[in-house]
Design goal:
The chain has 24 helices and 12 strands. It has 576 residues and is of the alpha/beta class.
Length: 576
């Protein structure tokens, strides 16, 4: 902070020195001898020094912000619609197994994404989102990710050097580069030819001066009018996001800086970027003429319009982008991955304790100890061991069933994306994670709650028995229909899925299912205590066995429902 202040003071000091030198140069030049006007050249020295210390101060300020934000969540504004575009493009191109929208919503992944996102660039935000939607099924790739994340945790100097470069790349607030690289746009090769021809016409008219003299003014003005029309109606502003092109330049400049790094762990990235950079660096230079603010320098504006400088640069860059599209996609991914891994390293720093997964591919089942939910402060840790088949979890309302289901799903996701689990121990195979926790009815679609439930369960059934084992997590199966049909359909579905290479975790209030499914499903439960003085108390600990308590009516009494309703409900229950 002190050095930053010194740089700021030196900036103003040299700026004042520039003004002093310029003042005396003007005064002595006017009153003594014109040779003193040469002092204006001397004023360039303190002016340069002021610029140098300005850049130094800004660099120190950026480093301070980076240091202060390390290991801390980011409260920046996010646009998740933009964050998911990279994933949307890639999911159409590949056949990777990815987390579907229902599971993403069930696991509260928007909140988890926000918690993990400390990225400095738009590409980092999009790669993080993509990773969370596409869990891996090979440990080798996860070990590589873990190695890079660990490097950024341990090597502060390297991390801050890369973070500073990423800071200068920055974020696009209302747009993104992925659309430019992945979305096919209409090609206009004829416009480059037209622009080049039109730009040469003013020069051609000047060659006519020896022959027609001052009359050359007429074709010259006509050429300017034509080029002004092209600039106004067919220029860059009418065809593409200038912000995206500018951002691409920053990505390429970052690549140039990364090429200068010498780190063995990052060597795969550095070597790949060196190959890409040599082939695309001309794009960054071409972009320097695109999107320059107008109205600052009128002479330059007229020259830019007369010779179509911006249009010729743009159509040349467009061709270069089209020719090097695959290279630029790779570069975009690399920049995003590095930013994403630093973001996860920062989260790990905040987290402190976590464990690395122990993947077992020889059999199904999950064994986890000390599992907690990442979004809950002072979360209660839980243990569970699931063998072949599945488990049924019972317990009263608000006792912790749904939170525990989400914790299991998130632990599998974190294990298969960033090689970490918020637990003391995690053993499991690689799973295709599928959930049905919070399907809702839809007035727009005209679908009832039960129909949405049935569709949600069906999409899980359609994935069972395929290439990868399924981790099936269901909360209150078929709660939207009558008890007789619910229990019958649930039992058949539960029997079906465990025969299809699936580990099932089912939460239910239907205690009959625990008896029907006892041969293939273990039973766990949550409990609570309700008293007149202390109200409802939960310990949120999972236990082996079946819940023998109900709290729905007690909860009504606790909330202050009329006594006649509570007593009548209890009498009805006692008569059953």
């Amino acid at each position: 902070m002190m050095k930053e202040k010194i740089y700021s003071n030196l900036k103003f000091l040299f700026l004042a020195a520039t003004a002093v030198v310029a003042y005396f140069s003007y005064t002595f030049g006017r009153n003594v001898d014109k040779i003193y006007y040469a002092g204006f050249l001397l004023a360039l020295i303190p002016l340069y020094c002021s610029h140098y210390f300005t850049k130094g101060r800004d660099r120190l300020k950026s480093l301070r912000i980076i240091e202060e934000s390390w290991g801390e969540p980011s409260n920046k504004k996010r646009n998740l619609e933009i964050a998911r575009r990279y994933f949307d493009f890639l999911s159409k191109e590949s056949k990777e197994v990815y987390m579907d929208d229902q599971t993403w919503e069930d696991l509260d992944m928007d909140e988890l994404y926000t918690m993990l996102d400390r990225n400095l660039t738009s590409s980092g935000e999009q790669v993080l989102y993509h990773y969370l939607r596409t869990p891996l099924f090979e440990e080798e790739a996860l070990l590589f990710r873990d190695k890079i994340i660990k490097l950024f945790q341990e090597d502060k100097e390297l991390r801050e050097r890369i973070q500073l470069a990423l800071h200068y790349v920055g974020r696009m607030k209302d747009d993104d580069l992925s659309s430019l690289l992945w979305k096919e746009t209409e090609s206009k090769p004829y416009m480059r030819l037209i622009s080049n021809v039109a730009a040469t016409l003013p020069l051609v008219t000047l060659l006519l001066v020896p022959f027609i003299g001052s009359l050359v003014f007429v074709p010259f003005v006509m050429c300017f009018g034509l080029n002004a029309y092209i600039h106004t109606n067919h220029g860059v502003k009418n065809d593409v996001s200038i912000k995206a092109l500018r951002y691409l330049s920053e990505i390429i400049r970052f690549a140039g800086l990364l090429c200068q790094e010498d780190n063995e762990t990052l060597k795969p990235y550095i070597e790949e970027v060196k190959d890409i950079y040599e082939k695309v660096k001309a794009i960054a230079r071409g972009n320097s003429n695109i999107g320059v603010a107008e109205g600052v320098d009128m002479l330059y504006d007229y020259g830019k319009t007369l010779f179509l400088i911006e249009e010729r640069s743009y159509y040349r860059v467009r061709e270069d982008i089209k020719k090097n599209r695959e290279l630029l996609k790779r570069l975009y991914r690399i920049v995003g991955e590095l930013d994403c891994f630093i973001s996860i390293a920062s989260y790990r720093e905040e987290l402190g304790d976590f464990t690395r997964p122990d993947f077992r591919t020889d059999q199904l089942g999950i064994k986890v100890e000390g599992l907690i939910h990442p979004l809950i402060e002072e979360a209660v840790p839980n243990n569970i061991s699931i063998g072949q088949g599945g488990v049924i979890i019972t317990g009263s309302n608000m006792s912790g069933k749904s939170t525990f289901l989400r914790s299991i799903g998130i632990s599998a996701l974190f294990a298969q994306t960033f090689y970490m689990v918020l637990a003391d121990k995690y053993q499991a195979p690689f799973y295709h994670i599928m959930t049905s926790i919070s399907p809702s009815d839809s007035v727009v679609d005209g679908k009832s709650y039960y129909l949405r439930e049935a569709e949600s369960i069906l999409r899980i059934l359609n994935q069972c028995g395929k290439k990868y084992p399924v981790l099936c997590i269901v909360d209150e199966i078929f709660r939207g229909t009558n008890p007789v049909e619910r229990i019958s359909a649930s039992a058949e579905i539960m029997e079906y899925i465990i025969k299809k290479n699936t580990t099932a975790i089912i939460a239910t209030h239907d205690l009959e299912l625990t008896e029907l499914m006892k041969d293939n499903y273990q039973c766990y439960y949550f409990k609570e205590d309700i008293s007149d003085h202390e109200g409802i108390q939960f310990d949120y600990k999972i236990r082996k066995g079946v819940s023998n308590t109900r709290n729905a009516i007690k909860l009504l009494a606790y909330l202050g429902y009329p006594e006649s309703i509570v007593q009548g409900a209890e009498e009805r229950v006692s008569r059953q």
